[in-house]
Structure prediction request, 218 residues.
Amino acid sequence: MPANVTRTRIKICGLTAAADVAAAVAAGADAVGVVLAPSPRRVTLEQAEAALVAVPPLVSRVGVFVDPSLEEMREAVERLGLDFVQLCGKESPGLCAGAPVGVLKVMHVGTAFDASLVEPYRGLVAAILLDTLAKDVRGGTGKAFDWQSVHEFPAWAPVFVAGGLNPDNVATAIRELRPYAVDVSSGVESAPGIKDHAKIDAFVAAVRAADMEVASDG
Prediction:
């Protein structure tokens, strides 16, 4: 990729098997995630260890949690070698400050996004991740939020965009939002927790094509 092109980072989440992790890495994912919270994609620590066994250096390992204790996070970080924890619940700024590694704090977007809700986490998290608001579900909905409802990002943190992304719409999300990173799970699956390797390749290709298009638009 030319030096003047901004490279959108790619996180592939909800991985449950070593073969799927290898496919994500081979396609060019910058980060891979395992879900350690209630979800159709949930894995045990033992299953996560097996899935992440061959992740190479410089590809980040992310563990996804909903309202965990510090002890739960510490155990997972130690056993899995996590680089980040993704917190999808109502975690307080204090809990984020005590996390053993960097935090990707999820903010759920409904009909609008209030950037002021992010302010208490300033300086305490590594990034903000915007996902779709859905009743009783903390992620993996397969539904996109209204991208036009997000009028500004917090300037002090990188922003990830998730929620219903797939090979067909990720380019539009990048053009409209210009996020630091995009996060995909259900959009590259053949069934919950089962990744489609061709869809992973197509998703990464779509991101890279969007990056080139945005650069050419100036």
Q: What stands out?
A: The two ends are 16 Å apart (CA to CA). The first strand starts at residue 9 and ends at 12. Strands lie at 9-12, 31-35, 60-65, 84-87, 102-109, 127-132, 159-161, 181-184, 189-191, 194-195. Residues 9-217 form a domain with the TIM Barrel fold (CATH 3.20.20.70).
